[in-house]
Amino acid sequence: MIKHGGSKGYHGLLDIEKELDMEVYFKEGVQTQPQVNRAIEEFANQGVQLIIGHSSTYGQFFHTIASSYPDIQFVYVNGAYSDDNLISLNFNSMSMGFFAGMVAGKMTESDHVGIIAAYEWQPEVEGFYEGVAYQNPDANINIQYVYSWDESEIAMDHYRNMVDNGGVDVIYPTGDAYSMKVVEEAQNDQIYSIGYVNDQQSIGGQSVLTSTIQHVDKLYLYAVEQIEKGELEGGIYNYGFTEEVISMGPYSDEIPEDFQDHLDEQLNEYIETGLLPDHE
């Protein structure tokens, strides 16, 4: 594995080593094409047959060099590059956003909810919009974009404007780098939030209605198991609730129990059918 940042990917590597009895190697701080090239050459000399890049940025890096190493299988997350020996693993974020939207639509008192997304192409955005509309057709949905994964200051400016001028009382920040700050500020302002990527109730307490959790460690383990079985070849793949690589975090006590049960029923039906509510 090569990575820069994040701990879940490393835990996934340990799971692969333990559960699949594989010898694994780890290298971090690899952030440029020349660094990637050197790391791949080192791994190839060690007889490595599978390389995981723990970031979407590795998609382009791997795409550039994968054909030079036809005997190595390259894997990375959340991207559009693929080849005969290049696999892109993507989270089914549309469904994740949908169920977050249902929660927001249910719990808003002002009928104004907001999502602060990093980019327009994130499937969470459409999912959230449709989930809110499904649960609460009267709700107004404020959508703002940071156009970066890391610009926390811009995200907080959007947040402040949404709350102070837009009347938003439920917020869903879909950028890992700034979600914690938004969740903390929402708690201070006594409004609701929905956590992103990790369970964020430890940060925002019961003001965090739930969290949409991505288990990248489980994603890597699942993918490597499929590769070992010969059931996963080069291409782009989407995984989510069905494969248990996405889950909803604990529900806040603020959410009525009957709605918690309803949400679980809808989620289980989605897992069984692959169809979101009202998408039949």
Task: Please give a quick description of this structure.
The protein is of the alpha/beta class. It is about 45% helix and about 20% strand. The model has no long low-confidence stretch (mean pLDDT about 90).
Describe this structure in words.
The protein is an alpha/beta fold. Helices cover 44% and strands 21% of the residues. It is built from 10 helices and 12 strands. A 6-stranded parallel sheet has the order 2-1-3-4-5-11, sandwiched between helices. It has a 6-stranded mixed sheet with strand order 7-6-8-9-10-12, with helices on both faces. Helix 8 links the parallel strand 9 (192-197) and strand 10. Helix 6 (152-166) packs parallel to helix 7. It is elongated and about 60 Å long. The N and C termini lie far apart (40 Å). The mean pLDDT is 92.
